[in-house]
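ARCHIVE CARD
SHELF: 3
SLOT: left
DATA:
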Amino acid sequence: MILAQQIISGLATGSLYALAALGLVLIFKTSDVVNFAQGEMAMFGTFIAFTLMMKGGVPYWGAFVLALVFAAVFGMLIERIVIRPLSTAPLISVLIATLGLLNIINGVAGWIWGYDPKPFPTGISGAPIRVGGLVFTLPTLLNLAVALVLMLAFFALFKYSLMGIAMRAVAENRLAARLVGVHTNRVLAITWGLGGILAATAGILIAPVTTLSINMMAEMQVKAFTAGVLGGFTSLPGAVVGGLLLGVLENLVGQFIPQLKTPFAFALIVLVLIFRPAGLLGTVQRKKV
């Protein structure tokens, strides 16, 4: 029963890792950018939701939706103002730009909201549900349900919609997509907007557990990168598999060796890069030179 409880809790936590990793992998596949500012974008969107609830009196779910709209616009603005002008710059320049964004967003959030941790409300409350010897808290079930619904909706968009086809075309070959009439700049902007939505959702759902602060996503960002590397940084399904698997493994390690729970993610990154650099579902990318 203890093992089953840890696996269930790990799946709930892993679903949030999967959301964050999905945004990272989506942006990387489409624009070849590893966005180190993804966690800070999530944190900023979470503070927007908090402000709407505490200062504006907006109900939880209304603030949730409005924060996601803000996150989408925020992501598109970053792509337009920062990333697009660097499209012809060396890759290292773009990476440094995202690191700069990380510190800028963090500093601005501290200036606006301060540096003290704040309690963040949950979208649901009530007595835990017991099934046999297993205990399911309502916030845990909510996190798992929202994450799964959003991931399924995202995969449906990516696979069946015209925008999804355009995104896949840009991810496969940007020049070829442009030659057949795909508006690549628009697709890239929407991709960053979707990445912002996925990040902010993870931030809002994890905030009640970690408390709200400007550094709340620091550890989550590491876990998102770990999930992406584990599943394969070129595979969207891999990001989901990697996130869920990481959540379960991390919970099991924390149950039996609590001292190793934090460094476990770093060790997993190193091991995967050594023995399977492409990840579980990723593919090796080869480019002609």
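SLOT: right
DATA:
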Amino acid sequence: MMQRIRHRGDDHLKTINRPQLTIQASWSDAETRRASRSFSQNVAWDGVPVQNAAPEALRGWSQPCVLAAASDRGLFLARGPLGVRPLYYGRTERGTLAFASEVKALLALTEDVNEFPPGTWYTPRDGFHRYGEVESGRLPYTDPDRIALELRRTLDRAVARCMRTEAMGAWLSGGVDSSVIATLARRHVGTFHSFVSGVKGAPDLAYGEQVASFLGTTHHSLVVAEQDLVAALPEVIYHLESFDALLVRSSVVNYLAAQLASDHVGAVLSGEGGDELFAGYDYIKRLPLNEIPGELEDIVLRLHNTALQRVDRCAYAHGLVPFVPFADLDVVRYALSIPPQYKVHHRHGVAVEKWILRRAFQGLLPDAVLWRPKAKFWQGAGVATLLAEHAEKSVTDADFRRERVLPNGWRLHSKEELLYYRIFREHFGGIPNLDWMGRTKRVTEERDQSPPSRSPRVTGE
């Protein structure tokens, strides 16, 4: 099992053996954290753990993490409230419980794959128990200047908690979210690298270079061609463990940027999560104001097996440790408590998404970057139609009609998705149960700004 996921870090390896319990973990230098000897001897973790592996200690656990411990209850498993770090489990034919950070490790023993729920702990004696909810209250003040200032401070503290080494990197597309994170990180890092990838002429390449020049980072741009995207698909789908079309499409450029980053740094910052917290999708601007808070909270809770999975898999595929400051629970709680009129804000007669986030960094970034309209990850990188056109050439109409419905009843949405499913099946076989896999909503191209769907069964063709 460990051999299948050693890409997640192979600088260190430890094994915990107890009666009827074995835990093994590997990790990189960039993830090394100080802990007491007793804690280290009994606990393996991915992320920033609580220093007491027990249910009562989890209530104040705000950092992204999963942990597995040998405790007085026997095995103790727990996953952070947002599910930023992955965890899966299943039982072998002999009834043994197995768990791992990626599905491919479990498949070495069993096809009984289940996603361990975020904000949950487990022991064999007590079963599964929810402990963490993403609670959002209402701010006791409504002054936008005060909100913007406190938002910037909260984000700054979250970024500071991510700093691990003197040299770090950031994925820098030049969008608002990645630019904000890079701006805050710049003063914490001695040697700061930034990375962007895209096809020739893609907006992200130009905007990324503009922000990098403004911040004084050591910038790296990777220009890719259609053949590079197609050639990367088998590796991307293997590491991503998904065939969802929009997720794969956005992961290809992310994967190639991570590959580039791994030549220079051991850890990288991502701006993922900003769209969900601050109403970055076009469809949200069409919602009634009173529906926006509930919608944002809903889509934040869907991130764990879609967009955050993309960040995790693309980074760890190359031994990179990803950090996502927007997923810091302090940031999430504060952001969700901000009134919706400051997220979708009418400016000069136009509804501006993420207005309060932009306002919080007014004067700290060039206006051309700060007020840049939202672009989907794969659009900004210029991948919008290349992969769909490749799939059109590779999959016939008859193939699509014949293979569109999967054995579990899911309906594939496009030839592009069938192409990805074929690659997925080559890697992992015909896994009968796919309920652990997240899928994104099926929407028209005109409205395709939608967030992931919580249910793996997508309805509404």
